[in-house]
Each structure stands twice: as structure tokens, then as C-alpha cells.
């Protein structure tokens, strides 16, 4: 294997490790650092000299993570070529993330939802996709995960958010064969001997997720994480959080408290 290939793989593995698996390229890692620090700079109202120093500090932080300088230079060139970053119109010595770069990050990183509209119903999704179309069945499964659905058992999924329109569009777009049935369980939906709270907690493993939030809060309070590390670790947990309606989350739930504490400690 060529040396350059080994180096490239090492960089990718390093970035995945540093970003808790959220980011896979030097471009995205650099964009994320720019996004965090540049927003903080603008919020604090630095002058152009202060901005320049802060951006230099950002690059020093990226290099301190173990990503070599040549990889970052190449990542910056590619990011500029693809329109993810640009020169500041008032000061050509400054570089800032573009709306296109922000859009790329939004696709990669989960976003905390502080408003969750719920119709007070639970929905059960069942499907039967032919074995010969296993690829499209897998596509459907991955789409259900991304929609925040929880797997009750093979080919049976649960969600508090009405999935009918999204699933209809998905079937039409990818020509998914077979049958997909969405059942409305009503306002008091439950299955078997489990009540609503127990069912939701089991399907979404809320206890395990809550423990991850608890551990993260402990790390924040102990000042073990810098801003970039804190946000990346938080987002890696949020990625697995279905962000269920607040009304059906357990009383001891720490998801919203974690977000508030992070905002207070490291304003975005």
C-alpha cells in the first residue's frame, strides 16, 4: 500500500476518533473548528486583529489534535474550492465559513430540537419487503433510524411522530416494493403488558442514553473538555437521541438539562 494512502487512512482514523465518529475528513473537522470559534469571535465582537489572532488559535488547536499541517492546508484549499469557506469581504486576510459550509455541517451534525410538536399519538410501522430487494429494505431501515423510530422487533418500528408523508415520499423516490403499514395506536397506545412509559423506555433504551448524558455532565463540571471536545462529545450522544416529545420522557431525563448546561458553559 502506498505511503500516501496509509497517511490518508491514519488521518481519517484520527479525525473519527477525535470527533467521536461524527466527522470523517480533514475538511469537515476544520469546518467544525471554524464554525465554533468564528461564531464565538463574532458574539464577543473582536476587531479584525483579534479575529485574525483567534483564527490562528483555531488552526493551532486543529494542529494540536495531531492532524499534520499539510493535511490541514490541503483541507483548507479543498474547502475553499468547494465553496465551504471564503475570504472575508472587508479583510482578505480573514477566512470564514460560508452558508454552503454551514449546510454541509448541518447534514453531518445533529441539531437539538427545543420545540417538539406532538399529536399525542404513537405510530407503529410494519413492512414486508421481498428478499430480492434486500438493498431497499436496508434503505428503509436506515431511513426509519434517521427519522427517530425505535425498533420493537424485526420489521416492526415505533415512533411518536406521524411518519406517513415521509414514508410515502420515500417509497415513491426509491421505488420501494412490498407493503408498508402505518398503524395509529391512539393516545393511550401500549402493547401487551407494557404501559406507554415502559414501552418507550425499552424501545429507545432511554436508561442507557440518560447515563451517557449523566457522564457527559460530570465531564463538563470537572473541566476536562475544551469547547470543541465538549460539543463533539455532546453531538455524538445527541446523534443517538430520538428527541422524543417532552411529555413522554421520564421525569429524571437529562437531555434538555445537558443542552442548557452546555450552552451556559460554552456559548455557541
Task: Provide a count of the helices.
Answer: 11
Please state roughly what percent of the residues sit in beta strands, choosing from under 5%, 5-15%, 15-25%, 25-35%, 35-45% or over 45%.
5-15%
- What share of residues is helical? 40-55%
Report on the biggest sheet: 4 strands, antiparallel
Describe the structure.
The protein has 268 residues and is of the alpha+beta class. It folds into three domains: 3-108, no CATH class; 122-201, Alpha-Beta Plaits, CATH 3.30.70; 205-265. The chain has eleven helices and six strands. It has helices at 3-18, 26-44, 48-64, 69-81, 99-108, 134-146, 164-174, 196-204, 206-221, 227-238, 255-265; strands spanning 85-87, 95-97, 122-128, 150-153, 156-159, 179-186. The strands form two sheets. It has a four-stranded antiparallel sheet, with helices on one face. β4 (150-153) and β5 (156-159) form a beta hairpin. It is globular and about 60 Å long.
Ordered list of secondary-structure elements with their pairings:
Elements: H1 3-18, H2 26-44, H3 48-64, H4 69-81, E1 85-87, E2 95-97, H5 99-108, E3 122-128, H6 134-146, E4 150-153, E5 156-159, H7 164-174, E6 179-186, H8 196-204, H9 206-221, H10 227-238, H11 255-265
Question: Which key terms come to mind for this protein?
Answer:
single chain, 268 residues, alpha+beta, Alpha-Beta Plaits, 3 domains, 4-stranded antiparallel β-sheet, two-stranded antiparallel ribbon, 11 helices, 6 strands, globular, disordered N terminus
Amino acid at each position: 500500500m502506498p505511503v500516501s494512502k496509509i497517511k490518508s487512512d491514519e488521518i481519517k482514523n484520527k479525525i473519527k476518533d477525535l470527533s467521536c465518529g461524527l466527522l470523517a475528513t480533514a475538511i469537515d473537522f476544520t469546518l467544525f473548528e471554524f464554525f465554533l470559534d468564528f461564531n464565538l469571535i463574532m458574539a464577543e465582537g473582536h476587531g479584525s486583529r483579534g479575529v485574525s489572532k483567534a483564527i490562528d488559535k483555531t488552526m493551532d488547536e486543529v494542529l494540536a489534535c495531531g492532524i499534520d499541517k499539510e493535511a490541514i492546508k490541503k483541507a483548507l484549499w479543498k474547502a475553499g474550492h468547494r465553496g465551504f469557506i471564503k475570504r472575508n469581504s472587508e479583510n482578505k486576510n480573514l477566512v470564514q465559513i460560508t452558508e454552503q459550509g454551514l449546510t454541509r455541517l448541518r447534514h453531518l451534525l445533529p441539531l437539538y430540537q427545543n420545540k417538539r410538536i406532538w399529536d399525542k399519538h404513537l405510530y407503529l410501522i410494519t413492512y414486508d419487503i421481498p428478499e430480492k430487494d434486500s438493498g431497499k429494505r436496508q434503505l428503509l431501515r436506515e431511513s426509519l433510524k434517521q427519522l427517530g423510530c425505535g425498533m420493537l422487533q424485526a420489521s416492526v418500528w415505533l415512533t411518536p411522530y406521524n411518519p406517513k408523508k415521509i414514508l410515502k415520499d420515500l417509497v415513491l423516490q426509491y421505488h420501494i416494493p412490498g407493503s408498508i403499514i402505518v398503524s395509529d395506536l391512539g393516545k393511550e397506545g401500549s402493547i401487551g403488558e407494557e404501559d406507554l412509559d415502559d414501552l418507550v423506555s425499552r424501545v429507545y433504551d432511554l436508561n442507557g442514553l440518560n447515563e451517557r448524558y449523566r457522564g457527559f455532565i460530570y465531564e463538563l463540571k470537572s473541566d476536562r473538555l475544551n469547547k470543541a471536545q465538549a460539543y463533539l462529545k455532546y453531538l455524538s450522544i445527541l446523534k443517538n437521541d430520538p428527541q422524543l416529545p417532552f411529555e413522554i420522557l421520564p421525569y429524571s431525563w437529562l437531555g434538555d438539562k445537558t443542552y442548557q448546561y452546555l450552552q451556559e458553559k460554552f456559548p455557541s
